[in-house]
Amino acid sequence: MTYREMRELAYAGFSVFHDEAIIPAIEAQVPIVIKNTDHPNLPGTVIEPEQNYASDLEITGVASSSRFAALYIHKYLLNREVGFTLKLLKILYRYDISYEHMPSGIDDLTIIFNQNQITDEILPSLLSDIREELHTDQLEWIDDYAILMVVGEGMRDKVGVVDRIVNALARKQIGIQMINQGASRISTMLGVHQNQVNQAVREIYREFFKNKGRQTDD
C-alpha cells in the first residue's frame, strides 16, 4: 500500500505505529516493511511512495471506527442563508468542540464529531443554542455513529467501485447514513449505525476479495 492509503485507513482505526514516527521515511520517500513478529519469514506489508505505484486491486483495505456521533440539521432554504455555517462553527467554538466532517445538502447538513467531545452535561445546552440561534426546522442527535473508510489507489481509475460498495451493503439491508468521496478519489467514507459496522466491513471485503484468496467470516 502507499503512504496515502495508510493515512486514510489509520483515520478509521487501522494503526500500526504513530503517524509522526514515519515522517522521516515519507519525506525521504523510503519504503517501510511491516513484519508479523510471530511469522517474520513472511513477506509482510510494504508501505511505499505513491510515485510509480501500481495496483490491480480496486481497493486496498477497509477500516472502521465506532468513536463518532453526528448531528443532523435541517432548515428550509439553508443554502441561501449567508453565514449559516459560520454561526454554527461559532457555537461549537464556544463549547470548545471541533468537528470531523460536515457533509451537506441543499436544505440540510450533518456534523460528525468525535464522540468523546460531547458529554451528557453539555449536549442539552449545545442543542438548545443551535436551535435558538440558527432557527432550525429539525435537529437530530445520532450517538451510535460509525465510520467506514474504503481505501485504494485503484479506485481512481476504476468505474463503478462506489456502486459495488453500496450494492453490497444494500443486499444485507445495511443502511448508509452518509457517503463522501474525497477529491483524491482514493477513499470513500461511509456512515452507518454502530450495530451494523462489523457486518458492513465483512460485506465489502466479500464483494472485492471473494475471488482473490482472502477469506471472510460469516
Automatic annotation (TrEMBL):
Gene3D superfamilies: Acetylglutamate kinase-like, VC0802-like. The lineage of its organism: Bacteria, Bacillati, Bacillota, Bacilli, Lactobacillales. It catalyses: L-aspartate + ATP = 4-phospho-L-aspartate + ADP. Its EC number is 2.7.2.4. GO terms for biological process: diaminopimelate biosynthetic process; homoserine biosynthetic process; lysine biosynthetic process via diaminopimelate. This is aspartate kinase. It is an enzyme of class 2 (transferase). Residues 150-218 form the ACT domain.
